[in-house]
Amino acid sequence: MFKVKIFFIIIYFILTNSEVFAQRLILGFNQRDVGFYKTNENSNSGSAGEQVDQCGYDDVCLEHSQPANISPTIFTEFSPFYFGKTNLGIHFGVTPYTVLQTKLINFPKDNESIKMTIVSGNFYTGLFYTWGNKDLGKNGKWSFRLGFHGSYIDNYIFYDYLGKTYQTRFQDTGGGLFVTWDWSDFCFIMRYNQGDKFQKLDDSIKDETNSRIKIKTDDLEIILAYSYYFN
Questions:
Q1: Which letter does DSSP use for residue 212 in this model?
Q2: How far apart, in Å, are the Cα atoms of 137 and each of 118, 133, 143, 187?
Q3: Which H or E run contains 33?
Q4: Residue 226 pLDDT more than 90?
Q5: Which residues does 57 contact at the CB level (< 8 Å), separation at least 6?
Q6: Phi, psi of 218 (to 5 degrees)
């Protein structure tokens, strides 16, 4: 975990100190609603999987109660690149890392649970259309963007099951719709990311059929933040 943090922090400082690429630093709060889906190594159910119930990391619970994962966030975005004089463009950004904690209930078997912490760093790019200022909220102006983004995500997963702690690392790609609204230094972002891959957990994590469990996630982020423009 230490190495991946160092990697993303180095990339982060390169971008934020680049006069060519770094347009703004975004600091604020991020609410993440993450859905977990399971299948097993013998399943033929396709790519959807079965949704897993969750509750708060330290809660005592037997029924689904979506945990409120609200945490500080900081990330960098490149200056948008537009196609000629149109309002259609692409953007890039880097999030050094974020932390998500949850408890998966009735998982991997009925009446069992797993506490899980996911540490993620992510590089994303998106195609969008802009209404308003093409430089977003710079110089006190406003803009509204709607588009589709793709992400490369580096995940470290730590989980506790039957008194033992496990960890695994995997890289994933995904994508989805995003909306941003910028008004001067204020920034609102909502983006959805659906993961592409199922990840196998430890050999000892098995379901009622004695098959190894695989999981994947989808992620809805709502961000309220302050934008610091570099130039």
A1: B
A2: 32, 7, 6, 8
A3: strand 22-40
A4: yes
A5: 67, 101, 102, 103, 115, 117
A6: -125, 160
As a whole number of angstroms, the distance between CA 185 and CA 49 comes to: 41
CA distances from 97 to 27, 67, 94, 204 (A): 13, 20, 9, 28
**201 and 162 Cβ atoms separated by less than 8 Å:** no
Task: List, in sequence order, every beta strand (DSSP E) within 48-201.
Answer: 50-55, 69-78, 81-82, 88-105, 113-132, 142-161, 164-183, 186-195, 199-200
Q: What pLDDT digit, counting tens, does each position of 54-101 carry?
A: 988 887 776 777 777 888 888 888 888 899 899 999 988 888 778 888
In this predicted structure, what is the pLDDT of residue 93? 86
Q: Is the pTM of this model over 0.90?
A: no
Dihedral over Cα of 69, 75, 80, 81: its sign: negative
Cβ neighbours, 10 Å, residue 133: 16
Asked whether the beta carbons of 196 and 172 are under 8 A apart, the reply is: yes
